[in-house]
Amino acid sequence: MTIELGYEPKDLLRELDRHYICASEDDILEMLNFIGLNSLEELYSHISDDIKFGDNFNFPDELSYDELAEKVTELSNNNIATLSFVGDGLQNFKVPSITKDILNIRGLTTAYTPYQPERSQGTLITHWIYASLLSQLTGFEAVNASMYDRSTALFEALNTALRIKKKTNTVIVFETIYPGDKEVLITQSIETKLNIEFLECDWKTGCVNLDDLKLKISELGDSLAAVAFPQINHFGIIENVDEITNIIHENKLLAIGIIDPLLLAKGGLKPPVDFGEKGCDIFVGEGQHLALPPSYGGPGLGVFGIRFNKENKNAIRSTAGRFVGTAKDLFGKTSKVLVLSTREQHIRREKATSNICSNQAYIATLAGASILSRGEEGLADAIQTAMKNTKKAFEGLTSIKGVEPLFPSGIFFNEFSLKLPIASKELILKGIDSNIVVGVDISSRFPNGGNLLLVSCSDKQSIEEIENLIALFKKVLNNSATEGCVAPEIKSEMQRLVSPEILKVDDEEIVSYYNKLGELNASPDDSCYPLGSCTMKYNPYINDYAAGLKGFLENHPEDPEMVSQGSMEILYKNQEWFKNITGLPGVTIQPLAGAQGELVGLKMFQAYHRDRGDLNRDIVLIPSSAHGTNPATTTVAGYETKKIEGIPHGIITIESDQTGQISMNHLNEILNDYGDRIAGIMVTNPNTCGVMESNFKEFANKVHEVGGLVYMDGANMNAIAGWLDLEKMGVDAVHQNLHKTWSIPHGGGGPGDGIVAVSEKLIDFLPGKNIEQNSDGSFKYITQEKSIGSVHRHFGNFGHKVRCYTYLARLGKEGIKKMSAVAVLSARYLHKKLSAVYPTLPMGASESVRMHEFIITLSEETFSKIVNAGVPKPLIISRVGKLFLDFGFHAPTVAFPEAFGLMIEPTESYTKKELDRFCDTAISILELIEKNPEVLLTVPHFTPVARIDDVAANKELCLREKLISLPELNENEISTSELRSMPFDKIKELVLQKHLTRTK
Questions:
Q1: May I ask the CATH class of domain 815-999?
Q2: How big is the CA angle at 203 (ends 198 and 204), to the nearest 5 degrees?
Q3: Which of 572, 672, 579 is nearest to 621 (CA)?
Q4: How many other C-beta atoms can be found within 10 angstroms of the C-beta atom of residue 312?
């Protein structure tokens, strides 16, 4: 079979290197010799054999590149292509072809979260465009850079409401939201202070009765903070959003509207800013269909907005997620920067507004480009075509005897509910015989069931295809035609009255512009990207080829199992392979990011203890060196950190010893004092200092002895995958960052992915669906007996599961072990070279063996020189990080986990020559600041903008603009590629020249 990939692998650096490891065998031997070892196995000789896989690591052999291309294409083709009338939890509209071009801009797809704004203007501007366009569609002044999906965005909105309305704990949510969203809310709110009251609809109308709403509000009184309601409910009916919003505001509550952003286009539905007399206070929605086909449910795009104006400047500070604002650099040049970051987990830890870290950043980038491609009229055409198709389908289907509207007076937009004369499942099966998926069985949504079907239309269907649907109904039901029902007109008060005036840009111009944006970022394609604890490795092109196959993209998550076997096999392989990789017997593929994986782990811990009647376990142990998501997740899970009469509750922080590892003395004290109250411990291993927790198995046993459970943060699996058996270590739950260890592109901040593996104790509590293989080789879904529920509306970020499958199949058993070993070798090689000139941290860990990352710092003498040059000591490390930008690299991780440290993780992706260039860069930087520390006053010098004044940007927040043209771009002073090929003396000379120019 000849596969057309759309690119030429042999022309791509790293793409055809075996296991995507560019270092030659000679490179590997030279690096081993330099650190005094003879083999890759010796890199793990300091770790006890009783926690290693040894010869028992079970994994399939690797596929060749050509075999892999054929295999993923075959799996895609195993999904049955159908004419689909499925929407429901995830609408299915045409997506502009330009999104394929934007997905291939590697400077955007592979870049990290824009924490170094001077080298991230490309990503920041794409998010600015997205937020501004969503602001125009919704009328809201503040739209964040995305949440995971609609369901998690809604959960964040409910918690935001509690923070705004202090001393409250309850929200009302209409029962008529999508059932998958409801399940997520229930799952995530258990054992938290958030109390959700679901309000049933009037079963005669399909909408909530407004008198029932008033009564419920009255009953709940002062405990109530907000009401959340859908503009279009799960029967497809448009709710009376004006009256609902007015009732909410009359009772001094917050109104949270659940919307579909596409349907707010010209000629569409009323935007949330115009609901009632004052508009909503918060809106959430699903935006995946702005950017991507269904893709079996993900990656999705949770849209979230809040009012931010003269009358309401403070509510935004209670929200979760990232916002992009306008800023000025030191010399007045306009730029973009992340604002309001002090709410986030990496700064506020357990006091953060959320644990979200990776979001759906790249889907937001795609959505912005997609909206520009459609423009005002293109968006309007899409929804007008959907309405036209819906009207024809409704009137044609209800003309068939026995087919009736479920709610005859209900006004709908592009979905409607029907009562059928036969079982819905029977009709769906008959439709599949004709390659038509006729809709979604919604019989369970109505009291006493019935034969109910939800039919969704969009701009994807032609008139002929609508007629084919009607003909199928007639054939299956064998009923004569009668006079059909007339589709009710959408009332004027439900419609948008003022055009959003969306900018239209030619596709060629968009692609050119976004390519220029990519050039403003740094990419791991080009060179070592040294961010510690972020694993910025090479992201293979073939992974994106696989995820972009039509059979996967067009598969809807609510399609029947029989038409989704290819997608289900992808999920099954992910599930089973991560059992092999971790050594643990259970896996859930649902979590959308590492932080959500952590939340799943703690939710399963809570369920496990509840199930045993062990209700007093209110303490979670977390080391001081933990990632910020660990304490933030613990808070989100419901553990409130406080002291009552001197007795701790919630998080107890474990001190580190002088080597950076957990202090066993302190841990033993905590276990002795609070053992019967400990729910569990969360530990990153290797830890964030790059050191293995040598006592991991010992302290896991101790925690188990007091009845607690062990969560291992898998952020650093790139050091140990294939070598260590987590079951032998005593791990009960661990997440896998697919966007770190398993080669998923970071996308400028997301989407991530956080598959979780668990011990035998927790299998019964796994969330979402598991996949089993039948005796005939087909696949089916099962739900665990005591499942905690769901944390995503469907099956997680499916597109990333395709990418992960593709990567793992290419690595195979040998490649997984070699990947980890070469990552450790690369770090150990750099550590030995750099520790000859830089002090390392922790101070007492100079003799500790490093794994995949390490921390360097400056001598006290060097710190003093820089302070005397005018840079305050707390700012020095961040300024040194920005000096790496001047040498063509991204900065290492600055000031974490050590306040005065630079954490470096080189990964396995680079040759010895590339590592040497980075090492020599770090040495040259030290030489420069020893001799001319004053240059740190003006760093960086060659990026598109100079150092950004983020303090001013946060004081005078500007979060949107009306786009009448594409934002102007600032270009690189010197490109990263030119800097990396330039002699070091020349770079230092140019830095000094630029510094002198800036200080005149």
A1: alpha beta
A2: 145
A3: 672
A4: 14
Crossing angle of helices 565-582 and 798-834, rounded to 10°: 30
Domain boundaries, the chain: 106-321+358-372, 815-999
DSSP state of 539: -
Whether residue 68 contacts residue 817, with contact meaning beta carbons closer than 8 Å, is answered with: no
Among the four given CATH numbers 3.40.50.1110, 3.40.640.10, 3.50.50.60, 3.40.190.10, the one describing domain 106-321+358-372:
3.40.640.10
Residue 548 has which token pair? 């972009």
Question: What pLDDT does 275 receive?
Answer: 99
Question: Residues 754-803: pLDDT tens digits?
Answer: 999 999 999 999 999 999 999 999 999 999 999 999 999 999 999 999 99
pLDDT of amino acid 808 = 99
Distance CA 582, CA 586 (A): 10
The CA distance from 970 to 122, in Å, is 10
> Can you count the helices (H) and strands (E) in the chain?
30, 29
CA atoms within 13 A on the CB side of 301: 31
3-class DSSP state for residue 680? strand
Task: Phi first, then psi: give them for residue 59, nearest 5 degrees.
Answer: -160, 150
**Number of residues written out for the chain:** 1000
Say how many C-beta atoms besides its own lie within 10 A of residue 348's C-beta: 17
Strand partners of residue 662:
656
pLDDT computed for residue 2 by the predictor: 76
**279 is written with which tokens?**
């508009």
Q: Distance between CA 904 and CA 174 in Å, rounded?
A: 48
How far apart, in whole angstroms, are the C-alpha atoms of residue 180 and residue 178?
6
Low-confidence ranges of the chain (pLDDT < 50): none
Could you tell me how far CA 815 lies from the centroid of its own chain? 26
